[in-house]
């Protein structure tokens, strides 16, 4: 890049940058929601607030340490995929989550307790609608031929023969392509259940209704009653609970089930009821979780990897229970109950399947990856909060940035003449690229732009202007040494490039350190500063340097009255005259001697 003998190199760089911008805006307008606007933060557009009330099984007040730990875990979930601009604060014995926009589903999902267990399926059936007779005699015992005794500890290597096999998902871990696909469970619901009713048999509860206040004692009583029915080791009590459970009612047992006992649980979409054995694997044994798209099955899945103990247990269980179901329960609900078709080797990844969207799969993986909360929470109704600063502040910030940009351009035009036009063109192209990238980041990692982020962008654009100044001054240095504009450009670029890269490297390191150590809006500032710093290098290399190189080959741009280098060239000529005079004087002195 330092030397370019032909004009093809600058044109190639400009063409590469044009292709990158075309790709960015192609993704903006042809993928996703196709909205060409970035997401704004809480301070600019407001958001949705959900209050999470901690629930303890004994009704006691949660400790501040538990609340702080829950706050840290939720903040980690919030920033697990980037800077989302969400806020998580402790308010007394509650956690208050505020997310940008009017969609409360993200805040509710963040408040999932995320207690994941893998349990063997003893029986699966359709739930009973409220007010209708149960299809099963509540007093009928479990089929005595079933080898799983819910009262006994579960041996992972012991086979589990469910009394009523009812696959709710695709065969696991792989499906025979010749067999038709089985219906799937839906993804976890967005709405976190609340404890408005003491039991799940309250058929009068309506989903989405405003929750009533419950005292800690009432909450503890509801949890204890739900445990007595749905976690009984008595098969008759299990059948009674399975026949009368109302999946649409709030679940007081959410996140409070005992993994050492059997469990009667609903699927997340409320279409199935399961009688499950004690847990064989705890979610704490998850080493990593990620979402991905299974191209063979054309569905989104969540991939889990266990630690050594969990991997060994899962390998033994799958080997001993081929053809049977295993239920993945999250916060006392069945997310997926796949049929085991083959043994999973120890250390291999395991998939949770269902009717996941890309967003719901990513949210579940993020929730499981960053850990379970030390408390279970009941979520209140979402409420809309107004912008803390508002559009007036956004307009003021944009005006301030525009004024600063105009002043920079005026300075460049006055000092560098027509070269200032190249500076203006480079800055405009930089702004266009940054805008498209911000729109895509809002879709891909929920990045939200707030005033702190705008400040980072303005500072980054100012650094881009600094890079132009460094380049132009190196060109002037070369001209002072007597070179022409055309020969000074590649030499000046070779000298300026090192300075530009060094300065940007220092700025990027500072932004990266600030992003790691800071929280809240300061991270947004650091993120946009680092982004604009990287883009500065791209603009200078692919736009500014090629444009100046092409200008140096033009007869018009080489005129001193156009490029503003006349004064520097005059200095170079004066130096030549002085050097010539000095040489002549020395030669004359030698002759006289």
TrEMBL record:
UniProt keyword Transferase present: no
Q: What is this protein called?
A: Protein translocase subunit SecD
Q: Which InterPro entries match?
A: SecD, SecD/SecF_arch_bac, SecD/SecF_CS, SecD_1st, SecD_SecF_C, SecD_SecF_C_bact, SecDF_P1_head
Domain (SecDF P1 head subdomain): give its ranges: 270-374
Task: Give its localization.
Answer: Cell membrane
- Low complexity: compositionally biased ranges: 139-161, 171-202
**Residue intervals passing through the bilayer:** 12-30, 396-414, 421-445, 451-472, 500-518, 524-548
Q: Which organism is it from?
A: Rhodococcoides corynebacterioides
Q: Check the record and name the Pfam families matching this protein.
A: Sec_GG, SecD_1st, SecD_SecF_C, SecDF_P1_head
């Amino acid at each position: 890049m330092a030397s370019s003998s032909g004009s093809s190199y600058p044109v190639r760089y400009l063409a590469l940058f044009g292709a990158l911008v075309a790709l960015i805006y192609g993704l903006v307008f042809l993928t996703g929601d196709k909205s060409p606007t970035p997401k704004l933060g809480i301070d600019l557009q407001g958001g949705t607030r959900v209050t999470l009330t901690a629930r303890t099984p004994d009704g006691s007040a949660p400790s501040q340490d538990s609340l702080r730990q829950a706050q840290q875990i939720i903040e980690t979930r919030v920033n697990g995929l980037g800077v989302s601009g969400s806020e998580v604060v402790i308010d007394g014995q509650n956690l208050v989550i505020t997310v940008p926009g009017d969609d409360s589903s993200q805040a509710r999902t963040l408040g999932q307790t995320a207690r994941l267990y893998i349990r063997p399926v003893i029986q699966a059936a359709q739930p009973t609608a409220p007010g209708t007779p149960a299809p099963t005699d509540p007093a009928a015992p479990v089929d005595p031929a079933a080898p799983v005794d819910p009262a006994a500890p579960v041996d992972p290597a012991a086979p589990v023969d469910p009394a009523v096999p009812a696959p709710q998902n695709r065969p696991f871990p792989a499906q025979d392509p010749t067999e038709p696909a089985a219906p799937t469970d839906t993804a976890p619901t967005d709405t976190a259940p609340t404890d408005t009713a003491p039991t799940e048999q309250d058929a009068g509860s309506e989903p989405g209704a405003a929750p009533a206040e419950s005292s800690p004692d009432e909450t503890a009583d509801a949890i204890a009653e739900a445990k007595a029915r749905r976690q009984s080791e008595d098969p008759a009590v299990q059948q009674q609970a399975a026949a009368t459970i109302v999946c649409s009612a709030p679940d007081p047992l959410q996140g409070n089930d005992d993994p050492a006992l059997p469990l009667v649980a609903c699927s997340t979409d409320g279409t199935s009821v399961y009688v499950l054995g004690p847990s064989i694997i705890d979610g704490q044994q998850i080493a990593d979780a990620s979402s991905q798209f299974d191209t063979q099955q054309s569905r989104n899945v969540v991939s889990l990897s266990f630690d050594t103990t969990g991997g060994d247990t899962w390998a033994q269980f799958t080997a001993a229970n081929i053809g049977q179901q295993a239920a993945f329960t999250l916060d006392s609900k069945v997310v997926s109950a796949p049929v085991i078709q083959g043994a999973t080797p120890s250390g291999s990844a395991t998939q949770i399947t269902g009717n996941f969207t890309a967003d719901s799969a990513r949210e579940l993986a993020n929730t499981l990856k960053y850990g379970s909360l030390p408390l279970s929470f009941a979520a209140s109704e979402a409420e809309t909060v107004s912008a803390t600063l508002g559009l007036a502040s956004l307009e003021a910030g944009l005006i301030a940035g525009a004024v600063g940009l105009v002043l920079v351009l005026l300075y460049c035009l006055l000092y560098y003449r027509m070269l200032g036009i190249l500076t203006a063109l480079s800055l405009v192209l930089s702004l266009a690229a940054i805008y498209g990238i911000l729109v895509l980041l809002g879709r891909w990692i929920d990045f939200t732009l707030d005033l702190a982020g705008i400040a980072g962008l303005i500072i980054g654009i100012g650094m881009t202007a600094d890079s132009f100044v460094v380049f132009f001054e190196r060109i002037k240095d070369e001209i002072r040494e007597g070179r022409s504009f055309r020969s000074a450009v590649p030499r000046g670029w070779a000298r300026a490039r090192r300075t530009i890269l060094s300065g940007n490297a220092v700025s990027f390191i500072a932004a990266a350190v600030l992003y790691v150590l800071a929280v809240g809006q300061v991270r947004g500032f650091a993120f946009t500063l680092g982004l604009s710093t990287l883009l500065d290098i791209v603009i200078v290399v692919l736009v500014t340097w090629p444009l100046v190189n092409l200008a140096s080959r033009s007869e018009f741009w080489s005129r001193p009255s156009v490029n503003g280098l006349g004064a520097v060239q005059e200095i170079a000529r004066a130096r030549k005259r002085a050097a010539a005079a000095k040489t002549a004087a020395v030669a004359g002195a030698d002759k006289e001697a």
